[in-house]
Amino acid sequence: MADIRIQALKRADSILEVLSTASREGLRLKEIAKAVDLAPTTTVTLLQSLVGLHFAEKLADSGRYRLGRRLAHLGRRVEARGDIVDLARPALIRLCQQTGEMVNLTVPGSGAMFVVESLAGDIVFKETALKGRDLPLHGSASGKCFLAFTPLPMRAAFLEALPLTRLARRTIGDLKKLEEDLARIRAQGYATEDDEYTPDTFAIAVPILDSGGVIQATLSVHGPAERFTPRRRQKLLAELRREAQQVKRYLP
């Protein structure tokens, strides 16, 4: 293992390693402290921080500790980054060449869409500032596309917890209007974003579905609204759909 100079991180890592071996019922504080060879007072301080960051959770009924859901969430991000990015990169490059606009690949995260890849430039491809960021489910083309094509039970859970924060001039802030927009997106097969997340920005997103029809990611094109004329939008949509189908061919 590499040299770890921050002692607290090394100790926290040891605690997470111990928790990873625990059953669903979790472990008591004394059991964890003994396993990592730390005083209970030191152990509980580290556990409180891990719980606060959702790397661990404390069970209310027993007071025991177990691994938190954030680790699973981060693990899904790593898997998505490693698999879907490799499969979709040729499509992203082709879209850059064809459109000259920013193109994004997003996967669902925890209450948002996570941008796993974002490229711009039709000659020299470069990563954009969006890569690694979360996009809002209700205010971005990618987010609305994901919600629209997500199975009803999951979509209902997302909508129930969704803060409809106003982000730009046309952000949808009403749940009924958002549901109506999602129904239109499902019917037409794509989502748009017009001054809803970033001012004066337009975007089109299409779903990337696996062989079972389950949405795995979204593919989108972003740019200044003034460049996205109605005629050009149709051309971009056709290109997005074609590339999404190419990626779908390689998904299980």
Shape: elongated
What is the CATH class designation of the largest domain?
Alpha Beta
Number of strands: 9
Portion in strands: 15-25%
Biggest sheet, open or closed, and with what strands and sense? 7 strands, antiparallel
Number of discrete domains: 2
How would you describe this structure in keywords?
alpha+beta, Arc Repressor Mutant, subunit A, 252 residues, 8 helices, Beta-Lactamase, two-stranded antiparallel sheet, 2 domains, seven-stranded antiparallel beta sheet, single chain
Write the layout of secondary structure elements.
Elements: H1 7-19, H2 29-36, H3 40-52, E1 56-58, E2 65-67, H4 69-99, E3 102-108, E4 112-120, E5 126-127, E6 134-136, H5 141-149, H6 152-161, H7 175-188, E7 191-194, E8 201-209, E9 215-224, H8 230-248
Antiparallel strand pairs: 1-2, 3-4, 3-9, 4-5, 4-6, 7-8, 8-9
